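Morning F.,

Quick status update on the modeling queue. The single chain you submitted on Monday has been processed. Sequence for confirmation:
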Amino acid sequence: MLVFACTVAAEAGRMPITFDKDVVPILQKHCQSCHRPGQAAPMSLLTWEAARPWARAIRNAVASRRMPPWFADPRYGRFANDPSLPQADIDTIVNWANEGALEGDPRDLPPAVRWPEGGWQIQPDVVVSLPPYRVPAKGIVEWTYVTVPSGFVKDTWVTSIEILPDDPSVLHHAGVFVKPHDADLKYGEPFWPAGDRFVRSSGEAFTDDPLAGVSAAVAVYVPGFRAMDYRVHRAAQLIPANRDLVVQLHYTPNGKATTELTRIGFTVAKEPPARRFITYSPQTPAIADRKVFRIPAGDPNWKSPPVDGVFHVDAELVWFLPHMHLRGKDMTYSLTYPGGKSEIVLSVPKYDFEWQMGYDAASPIPVTKGTRLHVDAHYDNSANNAANPAPDRDVYGGTQTWEEMMVPFFGVVVDAGMDPRKVMTLPGQAGVVGTGH
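Structure tokens below.
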């Protein structure tokens, strides 16, 4: 094998490509954040011993650009977290695999990346743990909410938030909201909406709305995304003193009963920031109208009613996260400026429910007062959609995976002293403004 590799390399006029010298730097930069123990990827790529059995699969995945996953149309915008491999790196990995996937000399290895311990992507300063939740092996689990104290006894600027499930296979999504403390609400007791009332896990029904006064989602977990890092945008998010965290959890049984323990990690600003990050989580206003939001059976390109908004102050648009379910096909964010110029700032032409990416703008997108935001989305409810569980059925808006949503999350940065309620409006929306008001 070594003779063959050396012969091929010699014919190409170069030294043999090895894991230790040539491949590891690429994996450290583009792959190991997911391909390490405790993360979403199915195999570790930290060492040659771990990577070598997968050499052919790695080659095929990078050559076809299936990995690293990335779905933004390169014609619109540039993004700081784009993990796409340059062609030279693809060639290196392909040639390494084709030439025998040599290990090389361990003395050529670069220093190992010091990843956060405990499975975190970002090492937290503060961790809030939710109570354990027993997920059944089968059946439907309604969206569940649980309230816990934030633990912040004074106004606190946080620079990142990460939601870390113990068992990602049973957590469809999670969202963290902030609200003023409610002395009548029991900490740690799950509850869920049931028509015009709510039900506690004890079975008790009640009508006082425990979600009244919640902020927009300040953090979100979906397949492929779990950490919001405001430091990328030189900003932070404010959590006022003595607030509660309301956590929305959507569990999906996977055939094996399990107990899920979810944690929320925060990094804390060392000093007050100059810039404030505001999260918006709007949904098309038509989502609850079954006459309007109805995806016909077999329709390969159904267009959803849009989400529209208008900015009332000068700001910066810095982050996007398209969210749909299994029929989601594409989503496009556009801006129209006061002078009439329009541009697409993010297009995701091949949405993938399994990899719901967040997109950090490489440079802030300035939006002046009067700029309008418009978001379109399409759905594929045909048999050509391999993820479609029932192409012979109409699909309506709803919370379960087999229903549909149209939620174009986005993030805006303003001066730290700005009141979030004054930044923009989204017609037909309520409760979509970020925390701290």
